[in-house]
Amino acid sequence: MADLGFDGKVAIITGAGGGLGRSHALDLARRGALVVVNDLGGAVDGTGSGTTAAQAVVDEIKAAGGEAVANYDSVATPEGGRAIVQAALDTFGRVDIIVNNAGILRDASFKNMEPDKVEAVLDVHLKGAFFVTQPAWEHMRGQSYGRIISTASAAGLFGNFGQANYGAAKMGLVGLTRVLAVEGAKYNIKANAIAPVARTRMTEDLLGPMADKLQPELVTPLVTFLAHEDCPVTGEIYSVAGGRVARVFLGVTPGFTDPDLTAEKVRDNFDKIRDESDYEVPANLTEELMMAMKFLG
Ligand code: NAI
User: Fold this and answer.
1) What is the pLDDT of residues 250-285, one digit of tens each?
2) Does ligand 1 come within 6 angstroms of the Cβ of 23?
3) CA–CA separation, 207 vs 215, rounded Å?
4) Is the shortest distance between the CB of 124 and ligand 1 below 6 Å?
5) What does pTM read for this prediction?
6) Contact 40, 102 (CB under 8 A)
7) How far, in Å, is the centroid of ligand 1 from the Cα of 124?
8) In the predicted model, is pLDDT for residue 232 greater than 90?
């Protein structure tokens, strides 16, 4: 089969001045996409800003014969999000792909999770995805084409100590992804989420001896496929690290049904309620409701 090409497609990649975003930008550009390399250029905790990081990736893309433009706006404000999308429209005339990748860390145990840590992290990861995706949405609807990939995390999907803010923001992106999948369906807009692990400045002190096997370049192939015209799925979540790709899904057990439910019946049937055999994977709220209705007869 032919390689996956992106000729003429315009991709916005947020936080692409380093780490995972840089790797995604280089691969999409190498495959013919016209890329907006967005990066605020601050520190891992979100403080500071600068133009060097995004510009260096644009230089790298251009040196390899690709086309890209740098943008230094923050994803964390509505004006920033609009400016990022406008950069794509002004430079390349359209927008086809958004990779919501910009991110920061402000870890603390829940006991010590101060409001500024919650706000800053929700602003960049979760609201940032809203602020960038929404101005692009009308263009994607108008052209009946769009691919949106949002960067979630196992910290939200499965839980991780010290990351209540980050985990909540990342799981919020899953909710956003699923609603965009429903609303985008009739416009050929597909939205999916990834939960990556890779050695970047964000994780270099955390991964220990495994770090050498976890290059960002081993996450990017999944992003590239989900960004492509041939992407067969929407509303889904994939775990990706070190060259392994796996699907993560929300399953619902058959459960226990009783039209005269009491707390005691819940207690007495709790093993059945939790029994994972014969689970189903609803694609949306309607499918989940239909499952519940099926048991009501
Ligand atoms: P990174 O720190 O190298 O990349 C994040 C980039 O986002 C930085 O270049 C930063 O300047 C930029 N950024 C931060 N705030 C911004 C804002 N307001 N506007 C625009 N750009 C902004 O770290 P990494 O690891 O490449 O992270 C990329 C994404 O992957 C993040 O969303 C992160 O949470 C997520 N992730 C990474 C994992 C890993 O193992 N590296 C694990 C799970 C998720």
Assistant:
1) 999 999 999 999 999 999 999 999 999 999 999 999
2) no
3) 11
4) yes
5) 0.98
6) yes
7) 9
8) yes
